[in-house]
Amino acid sequence: MDVKAYMTQLGQQARAASRQMAKANTGVKNAALIAIAEAIEAQREALTAANQIDLDNGRNNGLEPAMLDRLELTPARIDTMIEGLQQVAALPDPVGEISDMNYRPSGIQVGKMRVPLGVIGIIYESRPNVTVEAASLCLKSGNATILRGGSESINSNQAIARCIAQGLEQAGLPHSAVQVVETTDRAAVGELITMPAYVDVIVPRGGKGLIERISNDARVPVIKHLDGICHVYIDAEADPQKAIDIAINAKTHRYGVCNAMETLLVHSAVADLILPKLAQLYAEKGVELRGCEQTRAIIDCVSATEADWQTEYLAPILAIRVVDDLDAAIDHINQYSSQHTESIITENYTLARRFLAEVDSSSVMVNASTRFADGFEYGLGAEIGISTDKIHARGPVGLEGLTSQKYIVLGDGQIRV
Amino acid sequence: MDVKAYMTQLGQQARAASRQMAKANTGVKNAALIAIAEAIEAQREALTAANQIDLDNGRNNGLEPAMLDRLELTPARIDTMIEGLQQVAALPDPVGEISDMNYRPSGIQVGKMRVPLGVIGIIYESRPNVTVEAASLCLKSGNATILRGGSESINSNQAIARCIAQGLEQAGLPHSAVQVVETTDRAAVGELITMPAYVDVIVPRGGKGLIERISNDARVPVIKHLDGICHVYIDAEADPQKAIDIAINAKTHRYGVCNAMETLLVHSAVADLILPKLAQLYAEKGVELRGCEQTRAIIDCVSATEADWQTEYLAPILAIRVVDDLDAAIDHINQYSSQHTESIITENYTLARRFLAEVDSSSVMVNASTRFADGFEYGLGAEIGISTDKIHARGPVGLEGLTSQKYIVLGDGQIRV
């Protein structure tokens, strides 16, 4: 197979389909989403059978249990895929929204119209349900999509692709609006990320290694999410109960997620009061603590090294540092944060306002758990990822992040003088 | 000189300064802009003397007259620089704007805050006034800047840099908030565009060759403007006078600008009526016409080749094509446009609405000259460039395009359940 020719063909088809998708009205796009949901419901057995092939191959190839778990399409996960499609159908359509129309002295009226990005390339690892999630968000936002899933889920992804094609066709949309790459050849990824004529943006979903590789090699813009080294700062004027509730929730609600707290900063004035209680609660949950010297003078824990401040544990481990004021907390965050999500716990108005303004992360919070940094919790309906980039979209990326705004100008014959 | 070490140092200083700039309030930033204007006014003689060195070197090195013209800091251009600074000081500050604060079912309140991008690298060619224009927009939007001008304007740029440093210092802002690269070594550009730790976005200003090179080699996002192959489509239901006024203005108001029309599309039903009048007016202005076969059946002109549809002439040359309907016009535009600016001339509501929705360019107009695609005309106050990219910012990029939005979350102790 000539991978370059094949990917070029997918790209050309996607570009052509993107023009149709940009014109498709909300009703048609919603009908396609519902038809895809119905096709998945009708083809549960075929999906499960295809997934079983992937699972068998995975076991034979010695895939780790965690990978096999992510690969599996359980009945509950198929239900979730169907519900997700229905939810995306129910979301408002961002495309075509006109805003800020103002008259200028020349007599022209200038404003902005929200438009799809065009063709979105999605590169992901083993979870086959990403195929439906990503396709549905791109479809609703009027984009064409090229999906490249992990090679270990190829049969599952192809089966899902057939459901998507059926739903698109039923709604009268071009089936190349959503294309799943059929080859497992790794060269396909290299082509996909270097076709600026056919692909407008790449969204990689997966581990930091994958995302760094793609960002380095891409010749099209990448909406990327690297790591989540999130901080909670307990200020001297924190409400102790809020501080404890949030510090426990942000670390222990789920360990393997990007919005979990990895480093806790505590003001020296309240460290004696707060840290012993927290240490006891963390111990009950089996969280290993690694503290700075001041922390270790108060509670019993191992010594934190420079590496700890830079680590996204994704595990029941927490680094703790005692700081002397807000500036020291912000300095620590600016130095070590991955600019994902940080929260201050305080009752002090001025410090809360400074933290919001001065912390340069995609989500900055006051008196709330970092675990809220999520498209559903923010009301975006769904998310294609959480961007730690600074341009285009920061934080959870929903339908709006898959669009941009062009200028529109209404005149009645104006010329420039 | 160790260029890598030098550029790394500039980057580190810029990153540190960007934190100060992000905190600087509107009054302080405006005071710096005014102080820079005053420093330029006070140092007119020094600026002119430094510029004279560049002009002499340029002449000795055989620079073309057009390049020498762009390089020259005339008294009028110094006036314009001073006025530009005063205008940017008068613009609203985009930083800190909070929008869309909504309560979520969990009780948290979620919205967005507009924030600077951080460090912006500007790469430009000979015009030294860009140094002040770019620096003032980055300063007002709370960013630190590293400016790399053309080597032929190094003395002028250094003299301007001294005025900027003086103004920053006077306002109490770090002078490394605006740094002008002091070496003319080309390796400095290579370093600047591959320091993602220190530079958040690159804005290249110059010819297409420069911008393509930078886009290819950059490892940080680039806000870029490639070419402007702009179209005007005269529909069957166009008001003939508006059509003629706009077609003449869009082509002949200025030839060397990116928002000039390069291809005129005319509906076949009105070609007989419109083209002879236009041909006469263009002939009076010395515009060479290159037409499709249908055009040549109506007016006398040379034959347009495939290359003509793909060319940004930046000259008194116009390609003309007769089309049979709106779909054919949109197909032509989608195939050949550089997605800069297109305008339809029509009195038909439905066709105007379709053109606005379906043409995928950064500015789409109805009954207005493409020459309006400009930051000043759109009311942005000033522009750092016109983006033909699809993500982050499309069209004229003003202060807002030099910022992005982070999420802010206000809670009173909420945890994720």
TrEMBL record, chains A, B:
Top EC class for this record: oxidoreductase
MF-aspect GO terms: glutamate-5-semialdehyde dehydrogenase activity; NADP binding
Flavoprotein keyword on record: no
Catalyzed chemical reaction(s): L-glutamate 5-semialdehyde + phosphate + NADP(+) = L-glutamyl 5-phosphate + NADPH + H(+)
CDD domains named in the record: ALDH_F18-19_ProA-GPR (cd07079)
Principal location: cytoplasm
Biological processes per GO annotation: L-proline biosynthetic process
EC number: 1.2.1.41
Signal sequence segment: none
Ranges of residues in domain Aldehyde dehydrogenase: 12-283, 298-373
Assigned GO CC terms: cytoplasm
Subcellular localization: Cytoplasm
Tagged with keyword Cytoplasm: yes
Record pathway: Amino-acid biosynthesis; L-proline biosynthesis; L-glutamate 5-semialdehyde from L-glutamate: step 2/2
InterPro entries, alphabetized: Ald_DH/histidinol_DH, Ald_DH_C, Ald_DH_N, Aldehyde_DH_dom, G-glutamylP_reductase_CS, Glu-5-SA_DH, GPR_dom
Keywords assigned by UniProt, alphabetized: Amino-acid biosynthesis, Cytoplasm, NADP, Oxidoreductase, Proline biosynthesis
Domain of life assignment: Bacteria
The family this protein is said to belong to: Belongs to the gamma-glutamyl phosphate reductase family.
Described purpose of this protein according to its UniProt entry: Catalyzes the NADPH-dependent reduction of L-glutamate 5-phosphate into L-glutamate 5-semialdehyde and phosphate. The product spontaneously undergoes cyclization to form 1-pyrroline-5-carboxylate.
Official protein name in the record: Gamma-glutamyl phosphate reductase
Organism: Ketobacter alkanivorans
